[in-house]
Design goal:
The chain is α/β, with parallel strands linked by helices and about 240 residues long. It folds into two domains: about 120 residues, Response regulator (Rossmann fold, 3-Layer(aba) Sandwich), CATH 3.40.50; about 60 residues, Arc Repressor Mutant, subunit A (Orthogonal Bundle). The protein has a five-stranded parallel sheet with strand order 2-1-3-4-5, with helices on both faces. Strand 4, helix 4 and strand 5 form a beta-alpha-beta unit. It is globular. About 40% of the residues are buried.
Length: about 240
């Protein structure tokens, strides 16, 4: 599905805003992205500047440091991807962190971020990540998202709960969402339900559209926060 944010689409280089309070990080990322043909259209040293840069430049992707002075990356992500922002119109946010599986990363994912990168990411991975989320995919594998949810969902009261009405989904879509939340890939979902991968992708696209979710990472979180899947619950039996 084509879910490009911002003007233009897939026929032009991704447009990126970099938000980080360290000048060396911003400079390094800008040079890496430029070398890969990715356009940096704005920089910010804190969350307030990040929100302003996004409104001004309308980027496809925001590289957002989670810890910055003043307004941090978590609050900036919430404001950029607020409830009044349609998923198709919003940029994709990639959280930058020094720590693997940081509790703030989980909070950012519940606010709508599309994944996270450690700051020691390789140049190749950084450019690939920007292009991946710009295409509408999530940067986190569902299994990693699941571990984040199970680790932090019950203990982080600051997170923004996703209120979703699962009654909009068909029985098959509920099965797909449950299995997706347990970390199954499209190929595994296809084998599990006796479907083609193209049909699985169609089911996933419909789930995201009906629940107004940006990507698979948010779908995993929605499955947990609505109670469809609970931390530590056993996998459901093989579907017929």
């Amino acid at each position: 599905m084509d879910t490009q944010a911002g003007p233009g689409g897939a026929d032009r280089p991704p447009r990126v805003v970099i938000a980080d309070d360290q000048a060396l990080v911003r400079t390094g990322f800008r040079m890496i992205l430029a070398a890969d043909g990715i356009e940096v259209v704005g920089e910010a040293t804190d969350g307030e500047e990040a929100v302003a840069a996004v409104r001004r430049a309308l980027p496809d992707v925001v590289l957002m440091d989670i810890r910055m002075p003043g307004t941090d990356g978590l609050e900036a992500t919430r404001r950029i991807l607020g409830a009044d922002t349609r998923p198709a119109d919003a940029p994709r946010v990639i959280i930058l962190t020094t720590y693997d599986l940081d509790q703030y990363v989980y909070a950012a994912l519940t606010a709508g971020a599309s994944g996270f990168l450690l700051k020691d990411v390789t140049p190749e991975h950084l450019a690939a990540a920007v292009r991946l989320v710009r295409s509408g995919d999530a940067l986190l594998a569902p299994a990693i998202t699941r571990r984040l949810v199970e680790r932090f969902a019950a203990r982080d009261d600051r997170t923004v709960t996703l209120h979703r009405d699962l009654s909009a989904l068909t029985p098959r879509e509920l099965q797909v969402l449950e299995s997706l939340a347990r970390g199954h890939s499209n190929a595994e979902l296809a084998a599990r339900f006796g479907l083609s991968e193209a049909t699985v992708k169609t089911h996933v696209a419909r789930i995201l559209a009906k629940l107004r979710l940006r990507d698979r990472a948010q779908a995993v979180i929605a499955a947990y926060e609505t109670g469809l899947v609970t931390p530590g619950s056993p996998r459901s039996p093989q579907a017929p």
